[in-house]
Write a sequence for this structure.
């Protein structure tokens, strides 16, 4: 049982991590908390349901469609909810946060209209593949989720640290004006970041749909808030922090159910975050900001 | 922390939401006088229902049921009902605002709804003070009709349904040990849990563990793995069908094959749509059984399917019967007067609707026999 619970915790944690990676990318570059990320994630899951259930399409097509749709949504989000606020003088730094909240409400209600209120099952034969190790059942999906989250983390780290585009992105994060003076196409860099983050949300959505066989218009909010908590825990804008933070939260939630009371699941997980932050206010992997 | 943050977000978004939702879901109130004019008793009946938000499916079923009944009643000619529908979005404050709007309108004789027991707990006392008869069609928690003289319901309370289902399941499977699973952030599922726990204790079942979950959760593996390790004979699950169906799917996937006993919220054909084969073995007690060999029931099912393209669930059926009960009361009262309709409602005995024989007790609560059903081979069957 213990090992099964460990697998449960790692699966949940990996999903949290992928969601948090999208958050951390946008925050790291734009300094914006993108509250619509959870809803974009939810749309990714729905696209997966539509492709596999309604059109009987193969799984790879579902992934491609979800990535494409969420990438377009990311572009629209940047173009219509973030960019107009960035170019204007005297806009409060909270304005983008509020505008993304607006987008999230819009998307949640839109999915209500498009897909209906109920829970949609995700019927992919891939999700049924499992193997038995002793008395433990492991689902292939669980391994895939873990592997994808690790892959995403490493490719993001590599991309940010080693490639030219990544450097441009970090320069933009450092200082928008300076970067643009030095010849970085700031507009393109920002748009690309939001698109990549959204597409990652879409991937996470499909993975959740497959792992838990449940897709609802409400799934965005709760997972979005957890993603937010994770990037605070791991250190804002830090890729490794998002990964480790996600795994910690996933495992903490699972083991509270095992050894304690499931009613306190969220409470204890978040209490643990508060304690860690009291000891390390900058988050696990965050750098101290010297004033 | 998460809850608080959620609250902040909800508060900041609430105002905009209210503005948005206030625009939709209204039907123009009839401009005719709600008085007797040559034979037919004319009345405006207010409806407060959960039309937008996570539980919008309930509101949809309820308003569909009401509209179907309205058509039939009006074409009969004895009573002419005009429905004034308001959206509560499943929120107490919005339900109260909607109900107040209806009560302050002179034309509304009585109110049907709201959908959730939590909403009824705030709307009921207000209706009672204002002397407007109000009837819940889906409010199954403890203590609803006891709110006041003007508060009624025609929905089978959990306190009758759950013990009936547990009894039958115990008999058939010789169950001794149970695990309980419930949603702890919803008054409805919480109240269902209290009833389950009390019933299990009373019948001498050993409760191995009590696990909880929250609305909108998608991962139940941790709780289910724990339950699997304890090997119960039955799982009592107080969940709404959306969560409940996913729980069953995940449970069957990890190899838990014992039967589930659910409350009222779990009882919906949607469970089969969502969970597929995994839904087999769900036992529920219900006032509504669509396969019943009764002309009235079959007519309703056919008409409903023609009109809305899906099978009616208990929420549609209860709403349908509720409007007929209301019409009966209006007919007996002979006028669209709030007090007269209340008195006429209280006197309804042995009403024969699609749910079976129905009476109000002296408190305005339900007196009827539940049917225990089980899902077998992808369909609800009578459990024997």
């Amino acid at each position: 049982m213990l090992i099964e619970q460990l697998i449960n915790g790692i699966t949940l944690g990996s999903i949290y991590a992928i969601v948090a990676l999208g958050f951390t990318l946008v925050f790291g570059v734009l300094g914006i908390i993108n509250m619509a990320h959870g809803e974009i994630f939810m749309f990714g899951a729905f696209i997966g349901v539509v492709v596999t259930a309604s059109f009987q399409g193969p799984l790879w097509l579902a992934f491609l469609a979800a990535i494409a749709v969420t990438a377009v949504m990311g572009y629209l989000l940047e173009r219509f909810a973030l960019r107009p606020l960035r170019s204007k003088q005297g806009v409060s730094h909270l304005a983008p946060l509020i505008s993304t909240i607006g987008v999230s409400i819009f998307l949640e209600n839109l999915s209500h209209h498009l897909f209906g209120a109920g829970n949609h099952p995700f019927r992919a034969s891939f999700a049924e593949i499992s193997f038995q190790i002793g008395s433990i059942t492991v689902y292939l999906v669980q391994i895939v989720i873990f592997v994808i989250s690790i892959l995403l983390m490493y490719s993001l780290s590599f991309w940010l640290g080693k490639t030219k585009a990544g450097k441009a992105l970090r320069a933009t994060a450092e200082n928008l004006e300076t970067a643009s003076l030095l010849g970085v196409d700031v507009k393109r860099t920002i748009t690309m970041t939001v698109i990549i983050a959204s597409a990652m949300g879409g991937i996470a959505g499909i993975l959740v749909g497959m792992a838990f066989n449940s897709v609802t218009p409400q799934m965005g909010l709760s997972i979005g808030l957890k993603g937010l908590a994770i990037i605070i825990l791991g250190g804002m804008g830090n890729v490794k922090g998002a990964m480790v933070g996600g795994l910690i939260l996933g495992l903490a939630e699972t083991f509270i159910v095992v050894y304690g009371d499931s009613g306190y699941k969220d409470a204890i997980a978040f209490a643990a975050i508060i304690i860690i932050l009291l000891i390390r206010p900058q988050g696990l992997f965050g750098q101290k900001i010297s004033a | 922390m998460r809850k608080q943050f959620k609250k902040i977000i909800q508060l900041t978004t609430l105002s905009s939401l209210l503005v948005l939702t206030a625009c939709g879901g209204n039907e123009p109130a009839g401009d005719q006088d709600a008085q007797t004019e040559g034979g037919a008793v004319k009345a405006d009946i207010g409806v407060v229902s959960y039309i937008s938000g996570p539980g919008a499916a309930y509101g949809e079923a309820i308003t569909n049921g009401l509209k179907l009944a309205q058509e039939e009643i009006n074409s009969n000619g004895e009573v002419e009902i005009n429905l004034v529908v308001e959206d509560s979005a499943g929120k107490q404050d919005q339900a109260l605002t909607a109900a107040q709007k209806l009560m302050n309108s002179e034309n509304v004789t009585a109110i049907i709804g709201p959908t959730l027991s939590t909403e009824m707990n705030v709307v009921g006392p207000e209706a009672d003070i204002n002397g407007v008869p109000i009837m819940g069609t889906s409010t199954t928690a403890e203590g609803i009709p006891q709110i006041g003289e003007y508060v009624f319901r025609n929905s089978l309370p959990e306190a009758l349904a759950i013990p009936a289902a547990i009894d039958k399941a115990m008999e058939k499977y010789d169950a001794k040990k149970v695990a309980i699973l419930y949603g702890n952030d919803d008054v409805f599922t919480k109240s269902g849990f209290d009833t389950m726990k009390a019933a299990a204790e009373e019948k001498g079942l050993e409760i191995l563990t009590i696990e909880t979950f929250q609305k909108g959760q998608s991962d139940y593996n941790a709780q289910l793995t724990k339950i699997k390790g304890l090997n119960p004979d039955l799982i009592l699950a107080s969940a709404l069908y959306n969560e409940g169906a996913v729980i069953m799917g995940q449970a069957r996937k990890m190899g838990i094959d014992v039967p589930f006993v659910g409350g009222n919220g779990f009882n919906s054909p949607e469970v089969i749509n969502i969970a597929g084969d995994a839904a087999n073995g769900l036992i529920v007690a219900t006032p509504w059984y669509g396969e019943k060999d009764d002309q009235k029931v079959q007519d309703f099912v056919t008409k409903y399917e023609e009109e809305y393209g899906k099978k009616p669930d208990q929420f549609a059926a209860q709403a349908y019967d509720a409007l007929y009960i209301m019409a009966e009361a209006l007919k007996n009262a002979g006028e669209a007067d709030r007090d007269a309709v209340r008195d006429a409602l209280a006197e309804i005995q042995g009403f024969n609707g699609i749910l079976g024989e129905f009476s109000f007790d002296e408190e305005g609560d339900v007196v009827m026999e539940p049917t225990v059903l089980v899902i077998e081979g992808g369909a609800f069957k009578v459990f024997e």
The two ends of chain A are 49 Å apart (CA to CA). Strands of chain A lie at 130-133, 136-139. Chain A touches chain B through 52 residues (CB under 8 Å). The CA atoms of residues 18 and 148 of chain A lie 8 Å apart.
